[in-house]
Amino acid sequence: MGTLVYTELRLLTRSMEFLVLAVASPVVFFLVMSEVFGGLDTKGAVDMTTYIMISMAAFGAISGALAIGSRVALERQAGWHRQLRLTPLPGWSYVASKVAASMVIVLPALLLIFLAGLLVKGVDLTAEQWLRVLVASWVGALPFAVLGPLIGLSAKPDAVSALTVSAFLLMAMFGGLFMPVEVMPEVMATLAKALPSFWLAEHARNQVEGAPIDPLGPAVVAAWFAVTAALVVVLYRRDSQRV
Amino acid sequence: MEDAESGAAVSLRGLRRSFGDVRAVDGVDLLVAPGELVALLGPNGAGKTSTMEILLGLSAPDEGEARLFGRPPRRAAAQGLVGAMLQSGGFLHEMTGREIVQIMAAQYPRPLKVDEALRRAGVAKEARLRYGGLSGGQRQRIRFAAALVCDPDLLVLDEPTVAMDVQGRQDFWAAMREYATGGRTVLFATHYLAEAQDFADRVVLMRHGRIVADGSVAEICARVEGRTIRAVLDDADPAWLRGLPGVSAASVHGERVELHCQDSDRALRALLQRPARDVEVSAMTLEDAFVALTGDSGPRGSAGGHTVVTAAKEV
């Protein structure tokens, strides 16, 4: 499986569209948005530039993870999974390699935004805070690394990119990455707390504030991860019988 | 080989597989001994690909059982005993040929060296290029290298030379001969009868999901009794031709007529009632036998010899 993940990552570095979509575009969003809204007061412990930086890091992590996982659909169309099924490779490891590759690619996407925050926007955090923010954002991306293959296994190849884009836009919008939950109507704010995208950013903000973590957060993230992973297993099994 | 079945490279028993109303595989029994080179022939939709998918463990039969070297297909694959080139199995266009073969090699317990597999398949030079940029024939050879790299005892190939030019095909079969000399087993489906004739020691003919003939090329040709009559006839009516005494199958291409006959003498007399010209009577070739045995007007696979009588096994 190691070779599979390694080759996957090498392929991704060759794909310009992917690098632009997943890694560069959140950085651009961050720089533009912090230029426009950076002066506003959040009335919280996290200043607006840091707030936007964390939101856009979450956005980048989500779009990157979903983009990789949903490649499953195209690879199925090409017949790659059938070819792998002829090998001793256990069936689940194909999906697992996608999850692993997503988690690996999320790291540089996050680092690039944090670097832009540090160098361009002068976000001022201690080394420990940076590290905690990074780890919180990275772990928070896990449900999305599983959601990608779920989309890839359930959608038709020509519908996949539309579905992936809708998924990450909805997750970003309703998870409060484009506008803070504090300014949302109450219904939307409640909905946000049911989404892993909100908790991805919220847990990272907690690390800056040094605030305790709301136990609801890890519960929501774990539930999303478990349900999504279970669905992936079900779909994968059904798929292996059909081929 | 004290026990043919447990020692068989491939053993298929009573395989059936339907897709909706279509019976793709309708009672297939087949034993292939180690070292045999077997060609699977049949028109499109005869069930060749479905049979191969079952024997590779890619799909489960509705009934019956497939075993490779006495093991379930998935286990044989996990032990690196089987290499396969699928018709629909594909590789990602962004990968280079070498990466593809590397990935496959990495999954197996005792693979060949990647360079060795590429060399044997005759694509050592092209392997650094991306798969998507290769010609059809080069892609097929990368696929061959990928099937070969696990150093399998059994190779299963579904139309391996499709998209290859004449030279490519010759090179491919030369590479295959080299591989097969070690006593290894090859089962391949093909549309090119000449390939079956030149390469296989045994030909299995399928039609409508069943095996209708099974034997050496000579045996298959002998199975179809009689001869072929070729003639030129204006306004030929296929139905009239088929109705002629002694004729088992007839085809019409423009004014050219081809009759497969059990009794060519009677057929000839009847045919000459019409102004047929350029008449030619010849013994059966494999192609004639193929047409006679797999065409819809041909005889059912129920005669003796090496034919597996599948119809009799139906409940």
UniProtKB/TrEMBL annotation, chain A:
It is a multi-pass membrane protein. GO terms for cellular component: ATP-binding cassette (ABC) transporter complex. The chain crosses the membrane at residues 18-40, 52-74, 95-118, 130-153, 160-181, 216-236. InterPro entries: ABC2_TM (IPR013525), ABC2_TM_bact-type (IPR047817), ABC_2_transport (IPR000412), Nod_factor_ABC_transporter (IPR051784). It is found in: Cell membrane; Membrane. The keyword Cell wall biogenesis/degradation does not apply. Its main location: membrane. GO terms for molecular function: ABC-type transporter activity. Residues 17-239 form the ABC transmembrane type-2 domain. Keywords: Antibiotic resistance, Cell membrane, Membrane, Transmembrane, Transmembrane helix, Transport. One of its GO terms (biological process) is response to antibiotic. Belongs to the ABC-2 integral membrane protein family. This is Transport permease protein. It comes from Thermocatellispora tengchongensis. The lineage of its organism: Bacteria, Bacillati, Actinomycetota, Actinomycetes, Streptosporangiales.
